[in-house]
Write a structure and sequence with these properties.
- The protein has about 400 residues and is an alpha/beta fold.
- The chain folds into two domains: about 5-200 and about 380-390, Glycogen Phosphorylase B (Rossmann fold); about 215-375, Glycogen Phosphorylase B (Rossmann fold, 3-Layer(aba) Sandwich), CATH 3.40.50.
- It contains 16 helices and 13 strands.
- Strands 3-2-1-4-5-6-7 form a seven-stranded parallel β-sheet.
- Helix 3 packs antiparallel against helix 4 and helix 10 (about 240-250) packs across helix 14.
- The longest helix has 15 residues, at about 75-90.
- The chain is globular, with a radius of gyration of 22 Å.
């Protein structure tokens, strides 16, 4: 490539809603050298909380016109029929997100035009971005990013196979995520590599100093404040464990508020559980926010009850702010947790989570030793941007 000619790069993402993968992307975008790279970003849905953090040098591509037509209520007969079919298919109870994504692509991909040509194109999430990158984007090099423990079996494995087969590289965010993906697609082992989410400690510390905008959070100042930042989900994020642990803490007479930042399909069921068990004065939904760090900084314990995590970005962020962690033992937890040093790692059950919370709340020596350890451990990895550049070659 000629000297001084920028590398033309495309990122594709579902949206920039307040979630871990989206947060990872905007952090990466904040560190890219725009003297060397001409970067575009294509989203399926615009208006997400993290869009305000996208650097001004990034070219935000136009929304797909078929989505605008649907939003405006002017789809036309063909698009209306596709929407009707998708709505019918996707309303089944308990339907997995990856299956909904497959239905979405089968119903709507015909309305999505081909993109331009790029030197490097990156689908920064599984499913829709990967399908789009495969079928609609022309690029010298295509990279698929997998930022979770991606469970694929049966027809889902078969459907996704050709998409990953056409990628030049498949990037996983942890060794555990790589091992699991390799188990699903051993044929693609040679393409796989690990690249951890880039975390910028200075940005997190600065944002943590912003004022909290929640009256209910402020009311818990004299109580034990617990915080969980995760999609409201049962299968992966384990919010059923969260609520059971909350109930146990109440029954044991602990004076606490437990706050959840996130949104998701499990909320209605969570609200029913809270009402049935009298937890409305203990468990609070804070909705979504692009800045959970001001809440983290003022929390006593960060709690993660996940069954699966590609890495566990929110735990890493809590550690940056020196907040002791209680977490369940999910797939990749030991990529960052040192049990008894920077937090407590417990079994995936409510009793274990509640007991660990009480241990930290009642043992000041242990609590302070964890904070001291966190202050000394390495925080973040912004220097790995150079490793990212190597992936592009």
């Amino acid at each position: 490539m000629e000297e001084n000619v920028k590398v033309k790069m495309l990122f594709v993402m579902d949206s920039l809603a307040a979630a871990g993968g989206e947060k990872s992307l905007v952090t990466l975008l904040s560190l890219i050298d725009y003297e060397r790279y001409d970067v575009s970003l294509q989203l399926f849905n615009y208006g997400g909380e993290f869009e305000r953090y996208v650097p001004h040098q990034v070219k935000m591509l136009e929304p797909f016109t078929f989505i605008q037509r649907l939003n405006e209520g002017k789809p036309g007969l063909s698009l209306w029929l596709s929407k009707a079919v998708y709505s019918l298919l996707s309303k089944r109870k308990g339907l997995k997100l990856k299956t909904k994504a497959r239905y979405y692509w089968n119903c709507f991909s015909r309305y999505i035009p081909n993109s331009g040509h790029y030197d490097v194109a990156i689908a920064y999430s599984q499913c829709l971005p990967t399908y789009y990158l495969t079928e609609k984007v022309s690029a010298k090099k295509k990279i698929a990013w997998v930022n979770c423990i991606f469970h694929l079996e049966g027809y889902e494995r078969k459907f996704n196979f050709p998409y990953y087969g056409k990628m030049d590289r498949i990037v996983l965010v942890s060794e555990a995520a790589l091992r699991h993906f390799e188990g699903v697609y051993p044929e693609f082992k040679v393409k796989m590599s690990v690249f951890r989410d880039i975390i910028n400690p200075e940005m997190i510390r600065q944002l943590s100093e912003e004022p909290v905008k929640s009256d209910v959070f402020s009311k818990g100042v004299n109580l034990l404040r617990l915080l969980t930042v995760a999609r409201l989900d049962k299968d992966d994020k384990g919010y059923d464990i969260t609520l059971d642990a909350c109930r146990i803490l109440k029954e044991r007479g602990v004076k606490f508020h437990w706050y959840a930042i996130g949104r998701g399909p499990f909320r209605e069921e969570m609200e029913r559980y809270i009402a049935e068990h009298g937890l409305s004065e203990h468990f609070y939904f804070l909705g979504t926010t692009p800045n959970p760090y001001c809440y983290m900084r003022q929390s006593d314990i960060y709690v993660q009850t996940s069954r699966h995590e590609g890495y566990g970005l929110s735990i890493a962020e809590a550690r940056i702010l020196n907040i002791p962690v209680v977490t369940t033992e999910y797939d990749s937890v030991y990529d960052q947790m040192v049990p008894g040093k920077n937090g407590l790692v417990v079994k995936q059950d409510a009793e274990s989570v509640a007991t660990a919370v009480m241990t930290l709340a009642n043992d000041r020596g242990l609590y302070d030793s964890i904070v001291d350890y966190q202050r000394q451990e390495k925080k973040g990895n912004p220097e790995t941007i150079e490793e990212f550049y190597k992936l592009l070659r």
